[in-house]
Design a protein that fits this description.
392 residues; Aspartate Aminotransferase, domain 2; 2 domains; five-stranded mixed sheet; 15 helices; 12 strands; binds pyridoxal-5'-phosphate
Length: 392
């Protein structure tokens, strides 16, 4: 194929450049260090003149190969793959924000990120202000506070709210604020925020990118200019990806496009069926026309994803019984793997939060988050209906 942009499905398998010689699969460079013939070569590499790898905490060929593939998928100049999603977030933030500066964040973000923002950043003199997902753009535009960085997730966890990416980009640009998205729930198949103007796109690659619940990994993508600060912070913070995990990540990404097709299909199928069941109070899924942000989701997403939440007509005890009665849906946190998972936010990611506060976040004690896998959809439906029959 020449003179034509490659489709994301092709990029997932082959990246931007088809191999012309050597191994058909990226070799695992399981080494901490690299050998040079002489001091001049070593110096050229240390100074970044030769492009040779020096030390795996700085860069590694296996990791570089998967970084190039992710850049092609996201439409960015550069990507850094790190040992976890949290390593990606912390390196990006520490690389761009210094003491005395402020971050504006949507209030609907992953719990680990909230803890990073509330516990670690203030120790470094960085303050984070939170705002409701629907208020993010207005706050950015109206605020007299100068924000260095604006951070948000879309779709959000666990209520699958959608934030208008383009509107955040416009507001951030108008105020000179760096925009950063946690795009984990979307995956680069369903949304490509950099192409809408977002400066830094982050994923917990532990989830859809890896896809098999067998690695912990994170990615951060952006322009070369934006990524230079991220790379120098990451080099010192040390959340380095292991080359074998990079190999598994690359292997996972090869099937990302087909997996996402099935995740998207299965979740929509279940959401539509469950919405009609009287034992379920509410279904949160951005692909339902009843969803509050359906129009925005349709505008900026190519698929609505494999995550959905259901609110049962029950209490916490009944909800726990429901999850315990599931057979195919595994009782586990995390998401984005080929196997379906179920978890109760009130007992896991949002444990210990007051019921009133949970309500303000649109989360009930009876909310169950489903990470819909790629199994046969009618089997998954049957599993959910049987558990409802047993418990609600
Ligand atoms: C949306 C989101 N962002 C970030 C993270 C953190 O990623 P990791 O566990 O790979 O560090 C998670 C983990 O669950 C997540 O769900």
């Amino acid at each position: 194929m020449r003179n034509k942009e490659r489709h994301p499905s092709t990029l997932c398998v082959q990246g931007k450049h088809t191999l012309k010689s050597g191994p058909a699969v990226v070799p695992i460079a399981q080494t901490s260090t690299f050998v040079f013939e002489n001091q001049q070569q070593m110096l050229d590499s240390v100074q970044g003149k030769s492009g040779e790898h020096v030390y795996t905490r700085w860069s590694n060929p296996t990791t570089k190969s998967v970084e190039e593939k992710i850049s092609a998928l996201e439409g960015t100049e550069d990507t850094h793959v790190l040992a976890s999603g949290m390593a990606a977030i912390s390196s990006a933030v520490m690389g761009h924000v210094k003491g005395g500066e402020r971050i504006l964040s949507s209030d609907s973000i992953y719990g680990g990120t909230v803890q990073l923002f509330n516990k670690i950043l203030p120790q470094n003199g960085i303050q984070v202000d939170y705002v409701d997902t629907d208020q993010l753009v207005d706050r950015l535009t109206d605020s007299s506070d100068a924000y260095k960085l604006c951070f948000f997730e879309t779709p959000t966890n666990p209520t699958l709210k959608i934030i208008d990416i383009k509107k955040v980009v416009d507001a951030a640009r108008a105020t000179g604020t760096i925009s950063m998205i946690d795009s984990t729930f979307g995956s680069p198949i369903n949304q490509r925020p950099h192409m809408l103007g977002i400066d830094l796109v982050m994923h917990s690659a532990t989830k859809y990118l890896g896809g098999h619940s067998d690695i912990i990994a994170g990615t951060i993508s952006g322009s070369n200019e934006m990524m230079a600060n991220v790379r120098s912070a990451a080099k010192l913070l040390g959340g380095t990806m292991d080359p074998f995990a990079s190999f598994l990540l690359d292997r996972g990404i090869k099937t990302l496009s087909v997996r996402m097709e099935r995740h998207n299909f299965n979740a929509k199928y279940l959401a539509e069926k469950l919405e009609k069941d009287s034992r379920i109070r509410k279904v949160h899924y951005p692909g339902l026309s009843s969803h509050q942000h359906y129009d925005v989701a349709r505008k900026q997403m190519d698929g609505f994803g494999g995550m959905l939440s259901i609110e049962l007509e029950s209490d916490l005890a009944g909800t726990s019984k429901f999850v315990d009665s599931l057979d195919l849906f595994l009782n586990a946190v995390s998401l984005g793997g080929v196997e379906s998972l179920a978890s109760i936010p009130a007992l896991t990611t949002h444990y210990g939060i007051d019921e009133k506060v949970l309500r303000e976040m649109d989360i009930a004690e009876s909310t169950v988050r489903l990470s819909v896998g790629i199994e046969e959809p009618s089997d998954l439906l049957q599993d959910l209906l049987s558990a409802l029959d047993d418990t609600v």
